[in-house]
Amino acid sequence: MENYLLEMSGIHKRFPGVHALKGAQLKLRAGEVHALVGENGSGKSTLLNVLGGIISKDEGEIRINGQPVSINGVLDAQRAGISIIHQELVLVPYLSIAENIYINREPMRGGRVDYKTMYTTAQKFIDDLGLSLDAREKVVRLTIAQQQMVEIVKAVSFNAKIIAMDEPTSSLSDKEIDALFHNIRSLKARGIGIIYISHRLSELSTIADTVTVLRDGETVAAMPVAQTNNDEIVRLMVGREVTNYYTRTYNSPGEVLLDVKGLCSPKVEDVSFTLRAGEILGIAGLVGAGRTETVKAILGLDQRTKGEILFLGKPLRAKDPMDAYRQGIAYIPENRREEGIIPLQTVRFNTTLKVLQKFIHGIRVNRTEESRITAQYMNQLSVKAASQLTRLQNLSGGNQQKVVIASWLATDPKLIIMDEPTRGIDVGAKAEIYALMNSLAQQGIGIIMISSELPEIINMSDRVLVMREGKISKVLSRDQISQEEIMKYAVNI
Ligand SMILES: Nc1ncnc2c1ncn2[C@@H]1O[C@H](COP(=O)(O)OP(=O)(O)OP(=O)(O)O)[C@@H](O)[C@H]1O
Ligand SMILES: [Mg+2]
Questions:
Q1: Which of 208, 238, 268 is the last residue of a domain?
Q2: Burial bucket for residue 242 (CB in 10 Å: 0-12, 13-18, 19+)
Q3: Where in the sequence is the domain holding 174, given as residue range(s)?
Q4: Least crowded by CB within 10 Å, which of 4, 190, 247, 449?
């Protein structure tokens, strides 16, 4: 019989209205990177939360090195050598790295916190992992990637044998991902077992040794990555063959919706382009090339220092996204969970939040209409929730994002700006989002799509703006769009 570092078996978890885990299992070896994949809402985060003692399981067994362990809270998990790095990082921004690492277990001396010891020991952990971080630096000044590193250092300082990461690469640049993978390999070399959740299936062959696939709370497969491929994984995740991944029917574009001339802001220089009705304009470039900043300058979030913007032939004066939205522009930002959702409110409330006036007649809210719209978008984006009245915070991460997208689509915009529209979204739902974008374009809506995923840029765009160092380095027409061309102008060679 094989020796596993961790065996979770027969795990069940029920939430009101949802049977989130139905006998799920996961077996992890020491020194192994074990990918955990599945559609949005399939139970990945729930399984990690059970492991980390954040929620209790209804049934099932957890063994570590063959011995059954009972995990009834975060402290039990810590004692058992388990560390979970959640998707939303939970470090305290205004404390230093060292203070975050030693929070609630500060080294004491004569009744006071012994900062000297704290900084030196924290720095030693950092140095041992070969990271370039200063233990005295405040967390607020770190990038997401660096904060993740702090979480890793923290896990190691707890002497973790098992480190689980929930979608660690979803907001990192390619370079940062390389650095994270480097760190993961050094954890591996120390014999630590790593559980790795990701929707980026293309990463698996680079970083993972084995993969467990969850579908609807059940483990449907567990196998070495070398013995499978993306198509098979997708089929296992979704339960059917996914054909027609990208849907795009090109139509001749209509009137000019947006005309940007010589736009400058503190972060972008001389950006000019037009967008016509029914067009999807992709914006490609490396992280930091000025893609989001271009949009921010258009929407008034960054100060416009020069240039002119015409929307439907008239000067666009937007102070912020709400202002732009009143004029018919929807902006679905990169950080969807931070912007414009109310976690304690229901799916229905959040979906119709921006258009609620439409349903108010006198003093009555037309709930039927509100429910109809909500049902329509839940269906179109396959939002998985027990009901429309489920609180948003009880949805899985990806499903919360879909609700944010729905709430913007419900505003009936003429122009939609999407920043990384499919980040954190599973493969099946991605295909649905592409189909939806296509049908919006066919209805004459203009779409600007910022994306780091070259396949979606290549397959969905009518034209691509490639940006580099705050400027447009090339505009590619449809027959010119290819990975080589995009990379050529995105990278300075
Ligand atoms: N606290 C909770 N209360 C009620 N339902 C919950 C709660 N937490 C999770 N769920 C439900 O359990 C199911 C599994 O959710 P989970 O967050 O584990 O999915 P996931 O696989 O991590 O998805 P994603 O890829 O979107 O992050 C979902 O249907 C979700 O709505
Ligand atoms: Mg999740």
A1: 238
A2: middle
A3: 6-238
A4: 190
**Ligand 1 near 382 CB (within 6 A):** no
Residues 169 and 298 in one domain: no
Residue 297 counted as domain residue:
yes
The CA-based angle 417-421-424, given to 5 degrees, is 155
Instruction: Say if ligand 1 is within 6 A of residue 42 CB.
Output: yes
Q: Is 193 in the pocket of ligand 1 (CB under 6 A)?
A: no
pLDDT in tens, 225-281: 999 999 999 999 988 777 778 989 888 889 999 999 999 999 999 999 999 999 999
SS3 of residue 140 by DSSP: helix
Q: Is the distance from the beta carbon of residue 278 to the nearest atom of ligand 1 less than 6 Å?
A: no
**Spacing, Cα 41 to ligand 2 middle (Å):** 7
State how far the Cα of 240 lies from the Cα of 441, in Å rounded to an integer: 27
Which ligand has the shortest distance to the CA of 200?
A: 1
Which ligand is located closest to the Cα atom of residue 37? 1
Would 249 be classed as within a structural domain?
Answer: no
Do 260 and 309 touch, CB atoms closer than 8 A?
Answer: yes
Residue 430 near ligand 1, beta carbon < 6 Å: no
pLDDT digits (tens, 9 = 90+) for 289-337: 999 999 999 998 888 899 999 999 999 988 887 888 888 999 988 776 6
Q: Where are the alpha helices (DSSP H) in 218-270?
A: 230-238
| Residue 245 near residue 426 (C-beta atoms within 8 A) | no
Furthest CA-CA distance within the chain: 76
Q: Facing residues of 391 across strands?
A: 346
Same domain, 43 and 138: yes
Are 381 and 400 spatial neighbours (Cβ–Cβ below 8 Å)? no
Give the chain's domain count. 2
CATH of residue 41: 3.40.50.300
